[in-house]
Amino acid sequence: MKIGKNAITVLEKRYLKKDENGKNIETVEQMFRRVADAIAAADAAYDDKADVKKLSDRFYELMTNLEFLPNSPTLMNAGKELGQLSACFVLPVGDSMEEIFEAIKQAALIHKSGGGTGFSFSRLRASGATVRSTGGVASGPVSFMRVFNMATEAVKQGGTRRGANMGILRVDHPDILDFIDCKKNNADITNFNISVGITEAFMQAVQNGDAYELVDPKSKQAVGELEAREVFHKIVESAWRNGEPGIIFLDRLNRDNVVPSQGEIESTNPCGEQPLLPYESCNLGSINLVTMLAKDKNGWRIDYKKLERTVEDAVHFLDNVIDVNKYPLEEIDFTTKQTRKIGLGVMGWSDMLAYLGMSYNSEEAVALAGEVMKFITETGRRASARLAKVRGAFPLFGESIFAAGEPLRNATITTIAPTGTLSIIAGCSSGVEPVFAYVFIRNVMDGTEMIEVNPVLRETLEARGLYSDELMKKIAAEGTLQHIDEIPDDIKRVFVCSHDVSPLYHVKMQAAFQKHTDNAVSKTVNFAHGATMEDVEEVYMLAYELDCKGVTIYRDGSRAEQVLNIGSVKKEGETEAPPAMRTDIRPRPRPEVTCGLTERMKIGCGNLYVTVNYDEHGICEVFTSTGKAGGCPSQSEATARLVSIALRSGVSIDEILDQLRGIRCPSTIRHAGMKCTSCPDAIARVIKKTADMIENQKLGLPAAEPARTEAPASGAAALNAKFCPECGSALEHEGGCVSCRSCGYSKCN
Question: Nearest 5°: CA angle at 500, between 303 and 307?
């Protein structure tokens, strides 16, 4: 096997079978054999004379040679009791309390099995709409997203990791403005990626400077309108601020919907590369393009014969996965097998370009991307047709857009997924992303420095007699080769990292792959910290013009969970690694002199007087007292005391407000026109008013309601923000996901 030391570490930690004490009870070789045997066994269902042993050997060879790897759940669970092999699923969310909580229950079961979920909340009625059955009003999609988020958090407590979610809302939903801002606070709705579902009508309105209609999801009637450019600018501003929301071009997803008779595609998996109908699943795998190269007297070239054979075997492998998979819900089992969608993708693209002497940010590389992906998709479709002759077409073939042509075993063949952990195992660059950094330096416990160098760069520099540890340290500190005098220009031209590539070339590369990909392409367009909102807008418009199906951006330093800080060096086991629990947090002393605001708030059982005090550091304490009518003085006083301690301990005001706002007391229900829903809600309102007043004073603004500001991360969040929550190493944003190159952690895995 060609598996490297770092890959073995990741496999031992995450993939190998363990006993009840967490001790590994299989080797890496045994893991691959377990997976190969389990997947090959599906052939026996179609041919009782099938040479399952021979097929298992071929699958084993594919994986151990690192030519092809299935998605992580398959490596983890194939041949084991759980047997859940799919990465992600899409669930429907209907507009009734029963349907909403049924979706939450189903999502919990999926997360328990190790899968991620995608939802469209576009069918939910707008906030404030009438609920006829109760005479009340609807709370809207964003409110229920928080319920889904809390459920996801709860499931994590019984497992090893939170499930990942995608939340999508149509741009013509009446609550779209609230949705765009729902993750303005990075601490809110933390278990979701969010994307706005963009329509062609909306984009045309943006281009023409027109208004567009908001549509009631229940009646399908227009209930208002917004200026398209203003909404588009709001999406851009939010993405520039912290990377969300992304955008999904819904009409394009449905343009390529293989079985339109089954309804519209409304959502994708959490990383956005797999559009799915409700109850469909992702069954993904990736070819390592580096292993598809051959060398002759003229240098490196693509071995298309080997690539063809690998694609054929990979399609066979993934189709078998659908049969041996133990799905978490019966509905998913049935629906997945109706279309038998697979998603074959690639990894190592950037490394392949380096071997070929091509710069990622070149028209030559963009053209090659289209050529390679066209070959993979066409070859995969022929392989699927051959399987169909033996096994039959997918059951809904007769209702599909392919019905008039040759039968196919699989409704879709190709998908470009993020391959954060898989690329670590394969020892190559991730997906179709440029390399984030070519050199990393880590210090181990005894103080020894470990230099990790991209293998292609190492080979190139060693062949030229340029390699040295000192030079590698210099590259690591700079984060790029472009400003290193010792590096020749021809090497600099080829070895460009993510931030050396202009955002426009990020999009061009995505579009080149998308043109020949059945599903979608997971890709992150990385911006430098100094990028403007105009830069982001240009990328969004280019993605639309080049027929991408969606786009995700990330501006360096814009989010608390900062991407990899290339020049930093961390000692393993030291303070950069996240502590299991902080026990040393103490509130700062109460100041001798404070300023404050007292407001009388009407509650269900009388009046509540809320006093919020602040000093030069910000809000520091809260007091409450009740009027003669009574109330719950002990409860409100306790709330105020805990809030005061939290404020002086550095907890974000936004986090406190999110916990207090909206709590309902039965006494408020009996009164019309109440400004607050409970004593905690009243406290939150006065804190917010005071915080806004302080901010306006700083900015010299009038007392009008200001834009919501974000408090800096504090406590454990501040310590852990840039680093992997499992090993403490730095994180990368790429492929629409967040991953750690050291231990294999992935937000979406």
Answer: 10
Q: Which two tokens stand for residue 436?
A: 């984030």
Find the Cα–Cα–Cα–Cα dihedral 721, 725, 729, 733, rounded to 10°.
-60
- CA–CA separation, 124 vs 168, rounded Å? 12
Query: Is the separation of the CB atoms in 72 and 749 below 8 Å?
Result: yes
User: Is 366:508 a contact under the CB 8 Å cutoff?
Assistant: yes
Could you identify the residue written with the tokens 């075993």? Answer: 409
**86, 325 Cβ separation under 8 angstroms:** yes
**3-state secondary structure (DSSP) of residue 708:** coil
CA distance linking residue 100 with residue 184, whole number of Å:
24
Residue 671 has a pLDDT of 52
What SS3 string covers 454-483?
A: CHHHHHHHHHCCCCCHHHHHHHHHHCCCCC
Q: Is the pTM of the predicted complex or chain greater than 0.90?
A: no
The reply to whether 271 belongs to the active site is: yes
State residue 294 phi and psi, 5-degree precision: -130, 150
As given in the structure block, the two tokens for residue 546 are 């080049």
Of 271, 548, 727, 737, the catalytic one is 271
Confidence of residue 708 (pLDDT cuts 50, 70, 90): very low
Name all domains of the chain by residue range, CATH numbers in brackets.
Answer: 66-84+282-426 (no CATH), 88-268 (3.20.70.20), 438-496 (no CATH), 561-578+723-749 (no CATH), 595-699 (3.30.390)
Q: Residue 48 — very low, low, confident or very high, per pLDDT cuts 50/70/90?
A: very high
Q: What is the largest CA-CA distance in the chain?
A: 94
Question: Is-contact 345 285, C-beta < 8 A?
Answer: yes
Cβ atoms < 10 Å from Cβ of 333: 15
Gap between the Cα atoms of 315 and 337, Å rounded: 15
Q: Is 676 a catalytic residue?
A: no
Tell me: the pLDDT tens digits for 501-556?
999 999 999 999 999 999 999 999 999 888 999 999 999 999 999 999 999 999 98
For the segment 147-158, what is each residue's pLDDT rounded down to a tens digit? 999 998 888 544
Q: Is the pLDDT of residue 749 over 80?
A: no
The residues with which 36 forms a beta bridge, in sequence order, are none
Q: What is the mean pLDDT of residues 681-690?
A: 89
Query: Which residue spans within 113-164 are E strands per DSSP?
Result: 116-120, 130-131, 136-137
Active-site residue (options: 273, 308, 732, 734): 273
Confidence of residue 709 (pLDDT cuts 50, 70, 90): very low
The vertex-327 CA angle with 324 and 330, nearest 5°, equals 120
Q: Per the structure block, which two tokens stand in for 220?
A: 């399908």
The type of residue at 502 is S
Task: Give the position of tokens 């947090």.
Answer: 585
Decide: residue 502, CB within 10 A, 0-12 exposed, 13-18 middle, 19+ buried.
middle
In this prediction, residues 621-632 reach a mean pLDDT of 71
Handedness of CA 710, 716, 719, 724 (dihedral sign): negative
Q: Are 187 and 717 spatial neighbours (Cβ–Cβ below 8 Å)?
A: yes
Say if CB 201 and CB 215 are below 8 A apart: no
User: What 3-state class would DSSP assign to 586?
Assistant: coil
At which residue do the structure tokens 């009782």 appear? 48
What average pLDDT does range 580-597 have in this prediction? Answer: 71
Write down the catalytic residue from 185, 191, 269, 361. Answer: 269
Query: Annotated catalytic, 102?
Result: no
